[in-house]
């Protein structure tokens, strides 16, 4: 896990233990463990949160409770507030992705950061938003823009995690190696020999070079694995054997 400071997740007056537990689970999925609660309605600890956290115990065990939002963010250098109501607030508004990039930059610089999430029923108060430096607003379907507390945390935590994740965006899910140039060249040569043996190029001999070049380019674009080349070799062998068997049958008296 990174040694950079990770954002704190601050739930302001959360109403349901289940949502706190689901938040803890979403946080740990993406490596976040600093959960802070401001005046949770049903107190803390909460058995319903434990059941919903699905073994995200480290988050629940480290959870701290504060009476006010100001106390919960006192040690932080930069705070984001998540809210859909931004018209009457003059602050920088960022998408979760843009906010995550900014949070990562703060982390690299050694700054402590946090993200405020409001209560399930009404979100953050104007006073809470005023305490934040910036706002996170999630782009959603305007005809149905309601997401629950844990979903909001998961969206932001995911974007944070992506800024430090080195997983290739596209990869082949196996342990094979790509075919090397020698294997590809052997396959190309064999295809050319078999086509020559069947007179494929006889009526188009003047285009043979171009056709072979196009074929090689096509195979190069496919990104074949070692097993793919073996499979093609097996197909060619099977077709060749079948043709030879038929010729032998014709020669039998």
Report on the structure:
The chain contains 10 helices and 7 strands. A 7-stranded parallel sheet has the order 3-2-1-6-4-7-5. Helix 1 packs parallel to helix 2. The protein is elongated and about 90 Å long. Helix 1 links the parallel strand 1 (8-12) and strand 2 (35-38). It has helices spanning 17-29, 47-53, 57-62, 69-72, 96-108, 126-131, 149-162, 181-197, 208-222, 226-251, and strands spanning 8-12, 35-38, 64-66, 78-82, 92-94, 113-117, 134-136. By secondary structure, the protein is α/β, with parallel strands linked by helices. It has 2 domains: 7-164, 3-Layer(aba) Sandwich (Alpha/beta knot); 181-240, no CATH class. 48% of the residues lie in helices and 11% in strands.
Q: What's this, in brief?
A:
This protein is an alpha/beta fold and 253 residues long. It folds into two domains: 7-164, 3-Layer(aba) Sandwich (Alpha/beta knot); 181-240, no CATH class. Helix content is 48%, strand content 11%.
**General shape:** elongated
Q: How much helix, percentage-wise, in residues?
A: 40-55%
Count the beta strands. 7
Q: What is the architecture of the largest domain at the second tier of CATH?
A: 3-Layer(aba) Sandwich
The main pleated sheet reads as: 7 strands, parallel
Average pLDDT, all residues: 90
Q: What is the gyration radius calculated from CA atoms? A: 31 Å
Q: Which superfamily, in CATH terms, is the homologous superfamily of the largest domain?
A: SPOUT methyltransferase, trefoil knot domain
Low-confidence stretches: none
Class from helix and strand fractions = alpha/beta
What percentage of the residues does DSSP assign to strands (E)?
5-15%
Strand order of the largest sheet: 3-2-1-6-4-7-5
Order of helices and strands: EHEHHEHEEHEHEHHHH
C-alpha end-to-end distance = 77 Å
Number of helices: 10
For the record, the count of structural domains works out to: 2
Reading off the top of the CATH hierarchy, the class of the largest domain is best stated as Alpha Beta
CATH topology of the largest domain: Alpha/beta knot
Keywords: Cytoplasm, Methyltransferase, S-adenosyl-L-methionine, Transferase, tRNA processing
Protein name: tRNA (cytidine/uridine-2'-O-)-methyltransferase TrmJ
Family: Belongs to the class IV-like SAM-binding methyltransferase superfamily. RNA methyltransferase TrmH family.
Catalytic activity: uridine(32) in tRNA + S-adenosyl-L-methionine = 2'-O-methyluridine(32) in tRNA + S-adenosyl-L-homocysteine + H(+); cytidine(32) in tRNA + S-adenosyl-L-methionine = 2'-O-methylcytidine(32) in tRNA + S-adenosyl-L-homocysteine + H(+)
